[in-house]
């Protein structure tokens, strides 16, 4: 993980390229310079002097162009303050290849993309979107299975439905807090109103216009409605900023000819080669409209249902009773339309789909907003004799949501297991069940947040006086699941710690054997062994997710059983056991409530610090670099996908440079930058791929992405990438907790993986290392002599002219 500097990536030297230097270069169509242009035909330009280029892509956390290029004077070649390509100032001033880098080697460019994820302090607030991001990840964890497109579409459909229930759950939790706990229960009890004077105007004792129960509910409904509007706004703003960047067009004249060879997804390759993979603008717009409408309909149902239940009583006003039935039917019909929109279609990856369903998007949101307004008017109608007592009927709604999520996850597990059995991969996480497990964790996270927040607000309003009925029983039991879940995590951490200690002791003998004849330094040996053992914890991630999933299943079942048991009153000998269980549950609920409050305070503190501290902003950005690599295919309210900007940037830069110079290019990616580099290489036309070599180091391509996303980075996909590009070399260390070998299953060409690099470079003091060499782990790969050596070998294997097309593999190429 690269360490960020204090200097933001967008800052650079003020020098601008003058005429005859960089001006002609930055003005080219398709590159994001000071003048923007759409993907059109390449202009006839003279070739640039250099014939070898190394395009560096940094990893998670970000860095500065000065640090990447090893020079304090850098110039932005193309791009903006969000993402840009930089060069050393000397390289932009030179006119001959020999003058461009006196130190030898290719001309170096740095693509800096860290501001896509951590450049703004408001990114701290994206922690609120964590459940949405997690369920979106489940979409991309589908097992790899050839010739099963319908089953794959069914998998995506189930994930989209689970994501929709998650939106409804969190909006319903906001309704529970605002409508039930505040407006219905606390505002209806005079003792609670005295403790919270800001509710005086809602109190029935005040006799004001807002004191009627329906009007109190209508006023409180503005809070969850505003939350839904905020989620829509954030999604729409990021949609315009991230999903609006066109990838390199495959049309004629754009320099990206249609694929006639190489790997296609049907040839057991990766879907990342498809032209529309990084352009999900249409799907996100449809899903955003559906989820916004679902949120508004949830608020409308929360307001309408209590009033309709009162109007359905015998002897009630017939006109209001009829309006209640009509409004309920309209809500159900609009809800069915929302589900239909979510189920209707998924991603369009085989082509660049630039159309937008504007009529559908507008009409769906307008219909939901209209029903919400009608529900507010209906609930605010005067109803003599209506009094607020007890709690609103929320148990059936939350119980139904929990049951629906459970059934969807079970169905998703069945589909995932079927796909996995079509082509088993022993290294796939959880034997193909990684996606269902992550989807379950997303639903559990939403349930714990909903129950914890509801219980914490109820405790804050009520204190210890037992004035209020509290939140629904199911939410209370979900809040009680927080302490045992933390206890399981502590036990798991203790077990992993013991295992790491055993591995460290075993590594000490291995370290001693690697340095024969050298005087042993016990502390040095322990440090190297401990670093290697800690790096191995990454490979235990499937175990952690499996334990959390099993714990979630047990606690979820216990919460549902506890909620059902609370409604029954045992008698006889079972009464004492019931009271004991109830006492334990109440203690757990109280602890969970305070833990939620503590977590909220920590979140606010961290968010405030992120607004002032650039290093804190980058730290928070690291949390999203992995999770937000993937497009928003299941949940439109998830944090935006930075790769939908970064991948087109890289492909445009490589295609235009090779087109103008006909030179050789090394695409050099570190950590998460290697994943972006691989994704960009997949998007290149075959003629460009033949002049591109891939150099990855500290790469999680197989260790993380290949295991958790086998359909896109599994062994067949990586083998296809190795076949399609000219050459590939991968560097890694045993002390690296993120990077590892890529294990390309191809014996016909030289191995992709270099043997593990030495870390540290010297065990003791040597003439070359008179001071102790540091243990680098995941950082500073370019300081290893193997980096320069392997880069030179890659350039030597490339030919300056356009290489011939590789022979096709298989019957379909």
Automatic annotation (TrEMBL):
InterPro entries: AB_hydrolase_fold. The chain crosses the membrane at residues 154-174, 217-234, 289-310, 322-343, 364-381, 401-420, 432-454, 474-498, 541-565, 591-608. Residues 1-24 have a biased composition (Basic and acidic residues). Coiled coil: none annotated. SUPFAM superfamilies: alpha/beta-Hydrolases. The keyword Magnesium does not apply. Keywords: Membrane, Transmembrane, Transmembrane helix. The keyword Membrane applies. Residues 1-52 are annotated as: Disordered. It comes from the Bacteria. This is Integral membrane protein. It comes from Streptomyces cinerochromogenes. The lineage of its organism: Bacteria, Bacillati, Actinomycetota, Actinomycetes, Kitasatosporales.
